[in-house]
């Protein structure tokens, strides 16, 4: 009789744990966050978001061929695109490689192979979100050590490339100068089609002006020397959306 009671207690205990486990699992899959649409900056050539999520097989090939280590895979934090590639421009932007290797590596069509060169990229649009903090507009020199975060990023990369080292060397040369980083670091072949520094009518400084050649690569956001980037990328945003009626 004692054995029967003990077995019954074990059955109740483990059955209860099993039910709780299933409930917790369901909580993950059916929580509100599981269905929240993502607004991430996708790699070059990414098709429309719903189609992208349907086509992406989460293979990570785009990540592996990126020479700047720009591409990451999303986690469970939020959204329903777990395992899909994205770019966090505040950490490491896309630098618009001439052959667009991430697109070439994509086997599923989530990154459209019609995107063959930097000018074909349409990731988003740059926007001066915080003009009051822009160093160029206040004629404030770029502070020493402004690119510490970029050095730290490179230190944490196990297979750093020469392109990344060249990028760091170029960034180091701007310390102490008047800020034109967002325009000078634009990586597309004809950067003046995307961004230029123009005199600000409200002061003696200059400000970045965005043009329809902007591809939304995020380089301007990454190199912006303010604590919170003054200029940011609006993922999948277009020039018409943000500037046509401005």
UniProtKB/TrEMBL annotation:
The chain crosses the membrane at residues 12-33. Keywords: 4Fe-4S, Iron, Iron-sulfur, Membrane, Metal-binding, Molybdenum, Transmembrane, Transmembrane helix. CDD domains: DMSOR_beta_like (cd16373). InterPro entries: 4Fe4S_Fe-S-bd (IPR017896), 4Fe4S_Fe_S_CS (IPR017900), PSI_iron-sulfur_center (IPR050157), TAT_signal_bac_arc (IPR019546). Residues 45-76, 83-116, 206-234 form the 4Fe-4S ferredoxin-type domain. It comes from the Bacteria. PROSITE patterns: 4FE4S_FER_1, 4FE4S_FER_2. One of its GO terms (molecular function) is 4 iron, 4 sulfur cluster binding. NCBIfam families: TAT_signal_seq. This is 4Fe-4S dicluster domain-containing protein. It comes from Sulfurimonas lithotrophica.
